[in-house]
Structure formats: structure tokens, C-alpha cells
Amino acid sequence: MVSIDFLVKEWLRLDKNPVTRLEIDKLYAEGNVEELEKRLRNRISFGTAGLRSSMEAGFARMNDLTVIQASQGLCMYLLDTIQNAIAKGVVIGHDHRHNSETFARLSAAVFLSKGVKVYFYHKLVHTPLVPYGVKKLKAACGIMITASHNPKQDNGYKVYWENACQIIPPHDKGVSDAINNNLEPWIWDPNVVDNSKLCIDNIKEISDAYFEELKVLSYYREDNAASNLKFVYTALHGVGTLAAKRIFETFALKPLILTKEQTDPDPDFPTVTFPNPEEGKGTLALAMKTANEVGAYVIFANDPDADRFSVSEKQKNGEWTIFSGNQIGVMLASAVLNNYRASGKPLEKLAMLSTAVSSKMLARIAKIEGFYFEETLTGFKWLGNVAIDLINNGYDVLFAYEEAIGFMIGDTVKDKDGISALGAFAELIVQLDKRKMKISEYLDELYKKYGYFVTENSYFICHSSTTINKIFDKIRYGENPYLYEYKLSYPKTLADHKITYVRDLTIGYDTSKTSNQPTLPVSKSSQMITFGLENGCIGTLRTSGTEPKIKYYFELSGNDKEQVTKELSNIVKGVADELLEPEKYGLGYRDE
């Protein structure tokens, strides 16, 4: 193992940014070996989510050097893998976060240095415009510089393949290997994009085409134009405002009422701790204040890069209901189903998708109504690629969603898109209003028809990968796995309910299959275990690819909502007490 002195010298040899050089210099002068080890010992890993980390000096962080190295690896992999990649070019966009534009410019410079055409979006864009650009321009790949809904100190590097979907294996490993073979910077010039003839800024053309395509999602433009409903919107200091306003124009809806304190892009996110609509009423407090002032009962929110979408509704008692991703998902799915049925096309040609940790309610709806449903691994990298496979097999894949408020509607983008979801849900509310029905009432109508599906999803915080692995190994092998040579020993019960099957997608084991081999892809680089209980409850524990979290997703369905909710609550308590043991392992709670 090389010394920390060597790693420091190597960083200072490669890094040309005076700010990040000074960070390492200072840590070295202070003798802060612990922090230097965290920053320099291991490289930031390139996975199916690309890169994501805090913006600091070090091989393990997001900074100019690691972005350049990632771009060099991606560039070489493209040139080796995709025919005519030089002429096809790459699409590069960025959000408003600190360093996002610089990272995008440095990435573009790498590709330009090898003669690769670059479609560079100089203006801030919401993430879906990058995969849309890849599709429209038939580019070799797309890069979006964003950390989505992460805290302000983070940034990320998201990669889309030539099929306009996020990359999946084996491309992630291929790119990762190519990065390690191309660590010496080729070029370090953020200004190349302003002078190169190979660099094209066609953001207006791409944006116009994108919104024109989204028109097909609007079925009731006359009703939209006639409606006087008030909708409050927050971009949470992100890039969504202009796109949100334009989708309302595209759908012939009256203008949105903006939460003025959060309308403009601000990389410091001054009014929220976490710029994520999923985090609850604290994040949406200003939007609720605005809605109360203007007399609106609906709030829409996008996350900072506008690929996620949230809906909240004011109830008769004055309290606000923030709908979960699963609830929004089944309501949008129902609207898509109704519109497809009205078209007269055979329902067996319609396909919808959701992920392994999303509600099973969509599968129930598909079984009852007669359209095709398929479950994928977590993440739109899987949803988008499976959607393409189904389209190639003759299906109309018009809806996919994941519980983390990500929705794909129609055929415009094979990724989550908070702007198309915004337009489609606003139109749904207009139609509900014609029936004198509120959102909560519509959701209850669906529950009564298909069953009450109650979910409890949350997470514990853990910054130690060693601790996370200990917890999952305990679940997998028992309290002292080294004594039993790591023989499988999953728990037999959970909260006094018999466990009827276990699916472990980390090691590739599924007791519900006669072969014990899961049908979903296996990934040794992440933890994911699913349990089925005798009462029909299904629950999954998994790690996050982008955040220091152990996430859990549990769901139970039945005819009596109160009984189901109570029973599920007891099971989730068992998850903490029996499986995760937060006090024993020093896990942080969600609100800490």
C-alpha cells in the first residue's frame, strides 16, 4: 500500500486548480492524516449513477481533476465501443450548482480535444433535456452535471448511453476501467467550448422540440384553458421554473403561481436544509404559505434539476397532504390507462413498469384491467432500458415510475421527467374538478376499486460502509457469521409474522424460485434484500448508490385501511428492532 505522502504528492502533481491544491496542502501541513486518507486513498467510484459526492479536493471527491479523469475514461470507452462516436457527438448539460458549469466545460474540453463533436448547453437545463437531446440528435452519449436533490455541497456526473437511457452494466464497468487507464489530464481548459468549431449550442432548438413532443400528453386542452384552478409551484431554488411555466403553456393551462422565495436558481438553497420535496412539510413550508395566501389547494414541486415531481393537497381541516411517489404513480397510471382506453387501442398492447421497491398496486391494476406490467430493479436506468426492450417487442410503454417521486410519461424521454409529470397531473386535476372531486377523493376511489395498498418507506443514516456490510451480513448469515463459515441463515420471522420467502439481489438468491436463482439482475456492489411475509406484506432493505443511507420499503394491502395501517406499522417497528438495530450500530434517524 502506497504512503499518504505519495498520494499527496500525486494529487499536487495532477491538480491544476489552486483552490483544491490548497485544501490538500493545508491538510498535509496540519498532519490531518485521517482526512487525507478519506480524500485520497480510494478513487470516487464510477457506477450506474455515474459519479456523485461532495465537492472537495481528493481522488474520492467531485472536483476538476476527477471530472476530467471521468470524461477521459468515458471518451476513450465511447471511441472504442460506439461506431462513428466522433461524428455522433456527445450532449452536455449542467444545472446551477456550484462548479456545475465549470465541470461541464472541462468535460466538453476533453471530448473536443479528441475531435469529438459536442452539443454544449450553455444555459441551465433541467436534466431530462440531456437524454432528450441524445435521442433527438442521435448522439453517442449524454452527460448531465447535477446532484439532483442532494445537499448543496454535493455535485454529480450522470451519463446517458446512445439509447438515451442511463448506463447499465457492462458499460459502467467499461467506463470505470477506462478511467483508471486515463488518469493523466489531456487538457485543462474550460474556455475551449467558447472557441471550438466542434462545439454546438442548440439548446433552443432542442428545448422547442421537447415541448412540442410533450403536446401529445395533453388530451383536454379546451378544459385546461377554461379552468380557473390555482396551482402553486416551487422549484426549490432549482432550474425548474422556466420549464414548469412552459409546460403549463404547452397544456393550455392558466399560469402557475410561483413560490417567489424559491423561484430562481440558487446553489446555496437558502430556505431549505434538503432541497428534496420528499423530505416533508419543512421543505414545502414556503409553498404552503403561498398557497394559503392565494387560496390555492394544490402545490406542485420539482426537485432542483426538475426530474422529480411532487404533489400536495390542502384538506378540509386545513392540513396539507403530501402524496407519496407510489400514490402519485398509481393516479398518473390510471389517467394514462383511461386515455389509452379512449383511443380504442387494445389494452394488451399497453405496458407499464415500476421498480422492485415501488408499490405492488400497479401490478394489481394491470392484472385487473388487462395491460402488461413488468417490475425492474430500482432506478430509471433499469426502467428506461426495459421500456426500450418492450417497445422493440411491440408494446406501447407509456408509463413507468419509481417510488422516489420519479415518473416517465409517454415516449418523449426514457427517464424520469418532473416537467412532463407536472403537465399531466395538472390536467388530471382539471378533469377531477369537473367531477367535483379532490385528489384525495380520487385516490380513495382507486383504493376502493383495487384494494388499500399502504406503504411505509424511510431510511436510517450510516456513513460507514463497514457498518452497513455488518448489518446486512448479520441479516444474511446470523449474528456471528464467521463462526458458521458464512452459511445462509436469514430470519424466520419478522414482527411475529412468518417470512415466506427471501430474495437477495446482492448474492443472487431467491427462495421463491425453484432454482433459488432470481430473475432480476444481481449486483454485488450494492445491498438489497426483500422479504415476503405470510400476511402478504412485502418489504425491501437496500443501500443507496448516491447517499449514506440504509433505505427500507414495506407495503401491505387489504380491504380495511385502518387495520392494514396498524399492522404495517408494527412490522416496520420490527424492521428497526430486529433487523437494523439503530442503537447497536449507531445509525442516524431520518430527521437528525
How would you characterize the largest beta sheet?
A: 7 strands, antiparallel
Tell me the overall shape.
Answer: globular
The secondary structure category is alpha/beta
| Annotation field: number of helices | 20
| Rg over alpha carbons | 24 Å
Fourth-level CATH superfamily of the largest domain: Alpha-D-Glucose-1,6-Bisphosphate, subunit A, domain 3
Determine the strand fraction and express it as a percent band. 15-25%
Q: Ends: how far apart?
A: 37 Å
Give the name of the CATH architecture of the largest domain.
3-Layer(aba) Sandwich
CATH C-level label of the largest domain = Alpha Beta
Q: What portion of residues is helical?
A: 25-40%
| Mean pLDDT rating | 95
The figure for the number of domains is 5
- CATH structural fold name of the largest domain: Alpha-D-Glucose-1,6-Bisphosphate, Chain A, domain 3
How many E strands? 22
Domain Alpha-D-phosphohexomutase alpha/beta/alpha: 44-182, 209-314, 325-450
Subcellular location: Cytoplasm
Protein name: 19353_t:CDS:1
Pfam families: PGM_PMM_I, PGM_PMM_II, PGM_PMM_III
Describe it for me?
The protein is of the alpha/beta class and 592 residues long. Helix content is 39%, strand content 19%. Strands 16, 17, 18, 19, 20, 21 and 22 form a seven-stranded antiparallel beta sheet that branches. It has a six-stranded mixed beta sheet with strand order 1-5-4-2-3-6, sandwiched between helices. Helix 1 packs across helix 3 and helix 4 (64-81) packs across helix 8. The two termini are 37 Å apart. Keywords: Carbohydrate metabolism, Cytoplasm, Glucose metabolism, Isomerase, Magnesium, Metal-binding, Phosphoprotein. Its cofactor is Mg(2+). GO terms for molecular function: magnesium ion binding; phosphopentomutase activity.
